[in-house]
Amino acid sequence: MTSILIFLSLCLHVVTLSIIYKLFKQVQSLQQDNAREVTELLEQSLQDIKQENRELEHTLAATGNDTKPAGEKESSKQPETEGETKNPYTPETDSVTDETALSLEAKILQLHDKGFSIEEIARQHNCGHTEAELIIKMNQKAYNNT
């Protein structure tokens, strides 16, 4: 009688371990699919950003705006005289105010929740259409996976 119980116990353990192994493989497969989807989303967004940049460069070239990159801007500072030394850190303790501001991501998600279109959101926050769309998609992806 005990040998039958031991045999049944062994069979149940084998079945349980095989089920656990199959579930583990399914979870791994889902994680790989999720990583692949995120990678594809980011690659598509990168392509969209590149396209927007090309369009912006074309528009700027067509309008004749001569813009310099941030590193090439001319400095408007006057050179310091020898007798003058400026302290770069001068705290102003009399006028300290504590302000809080929402991040760009929070602002975009807030407007999206209110029903604004991606174009309207990008226009209001002076950011790229693709940037706003990517923030929304990544938030939806994170929200759906929890």
Helix and strand run: HHHH
Q: Rough shape?
A: elongated
Mean pLDDT: 81
Q: What is the distance, rounded to the nearest whole angstrom, between the alpha carbons of the first and last residues? A: 48 Å
Instruction: Quickly count the helices.
Output: 4
Biggest sheet statistics: none
Unreliable runs = 71-76
The proportion of residues in beta strands is under 5%
The assigned structural class equals mainly alpha
| Rg calculated over all Cα atoms | 29 Å
Oligomer: single chain
InterPro entries: DUF6115
Protein name: DUF6115 domain-containing protein
Biased composition (Polar residues): 87-98
Organism: Lentibacillus kimchii
What does this protein look like?
Helix content is 66%, strand content 0%. The chain has a domain at 48-64 and 103-146. Helix 3 packs across helix 4 (129-145). It has helices at 2-63, 104-113, 118-125, 129-145. The protein is mainly α. The radius of gyration is 29 Å and the shape is elongated.
